[in-house]
Design a protein that fits this description.
The protein has two domains: 4-186, Aminopeptidase; 195-352, Gcn5-related N-acetyltransferase (GNAT) (Aminopeptidase, 3-Layer(aba) Sandwich). The chain is α+β, with helices and mostly antiparallel strands. The longest helix is centred in the middle third of the chain and has 18 residues, at 196-213. It is built from 14 helices and 14 strands.
Length: 389
């Protein structure tokens, strides 16, 4: 059976034998075309969640993305028969390359119609640019940081994308495989159902751990109350994630960028921090699922997009576990147990029993075994590919 999304993409664009033109993105109109292409590709796909167009434009603008201070990057469009039919970016994260002592280039933000020539011209252009700058291996899809887009969806095409994840069409993987890319790392995602047994178990465990270690829980009622803790949160994130693949520390400018981007969609009821003698040692940020609201907003906050988002924040049916971090020295002290017990209690008060996890590296058995304490499905998988060049 022909994939409906692939069929629509094929019909949306002319498919004659005219040559593919690759255009390096430079003008403001080309930046907008780059940001808006997915809206055409996924126009009738009910599982794709549109980003905010202005945020997408900012992400590839050197004047507005502080990661470009230590990253080289370039972006291209593919044009065929007068239509924009594909896009790709290439990134060199010099901080990450120093960390792993390798010459790695990233391909990023890849989108294209199901056309071998379009894909190959895009990938050839990005690879040539990276090779010209001395890179020896190419991997991706990856962004500028681990809070940027990373990974390609390869399983779970019939599940709604969460705002912290990605969505792609099924034919993407085949083109990458045929080009010679191989698996580097997979992330898996879970849908969890919160039940009374899980709540009671977590509550008992949290009480014991707090008594044993003297941990204190910090709760929030207003977004303004969280502001003084932003630097603590990102400092923990830098420490906790330092050994993970693709991760580099967030500097002050990036902290401000992501705080501005995400704090406006965070409901403080679902944020918790744990302190030990006034020192913040762990945090969890869960967010009301905004997937359906973002679909209604269709890339724009105004005039009505923000209304859909505010409604979703106030009366969520699903909670997305967006970000969790614990200082490495407290990894085995049960801080995560306290954090999740707190969020589960808040969910129970609000009558929410559905949770979506963000991507977890498939070898992170400690976290995955915890998710399996719940009624669960492992419903999505995304992949980072790699190839020697």
């Amino acid at each position: 059976m022909m994939d409906i999304s692939a069929a629509f993409v094929t019909l949306c664009f002319k498919t004659t034998d005219m040559a593919v033109e690759i255009i390096k993105v430079s003008s403001s109109s080309e930046v907008k075309q780059f940001a808006k292409l997915p809206f055409q590709l996924y126009k009738t796909n009910k599982y794709w969640v549109p980003p905010i167009i202005k945020d997408e434009i900012k992400s590839i603008d050197a004047a507005q993305n502080p990661a470009m201070e230590y990253c080289d990057s370039a972006f291209w469009l593919a044009k065929k028969d007068g239509d924009i039919v594909g896009r790709i970016g290439a990134i060199i994260n010099h901080k990450y390359n120093e960390k792993v002592d390798e010459k790695l280039g990233r391909f990023s933000r890849l989108e294209f119609i199901d056309d071998q020539e379009v894909f190959e011209q895009l990938m050839n252009t990005a690879v040539a640019w990276l090779k010209d700058k001395g890179m020896q291996r190419v991997h991706g899809p990856l962004g500028f940081s681990n809070l940027d887009t990373q990974g390609m969806l390869i399983e779970g095409f019939d599940h709604l994308q969460s705002v912290a994840s990605v969505y792609h069409l099924p034919y993407y993987k085949k083109h990458l495989d045929d080009y010679g890319f191989e698996k580097e790392i997979d992330w898996v995602e879970f849908r969890l159902t919160l039940g009374e047994k899980a709540i009671n178990k977590a509550t008992r465990g949290a009480k014991l751990i707090k008594r044993r270690y003297g941990f204190e829980v910090v709760r929030f009622n207003k977004s303004s109350e969280m502001r003084p803790y932003v630097k603590n949160l990102f400092a923990i994130l830098n420490d906790a994630f330092v050994k993970l693949p693709y991760v580099t520390p967030f500097n002050d400018k990036m902290v401000e960028l992501y705080a501005e981007k995400y704090f406006k969609v965070i409901n403080p009821k679902y944020v918790r921090m744990v302190k030990k003698e006034d020192d913040v040692v762990g945090f969890v940020v869960a967010v009301p699922s905004l997937s359906e609201a973002m679909q209604k907003a269709n890339g724009k906050l105004f005039p009505f997009g923000f209304v859909h988002i505010l409604r979703a924040m106030k009366k969520p049916e699903v909670l997305d576990f967006f970000l969790t971090g614990v200082k490495p020295e407290y990894d085995k002290a049960g801080v995560a147990v306290i954090l999740f017990a707190e969020i589960q209690e808040e969910m129970a008060k609000a009558g929410i029993d559905q949770m979506e996890t963000t991507g977890i590296i498939e070898t992170n058995h400690n976290v995955i075994s915890n998710w399996k304490n719940y009624e669960h499905i492992q419903h999505k998988r995304r992949r980072c590919f790699v190839k020697d060049v």
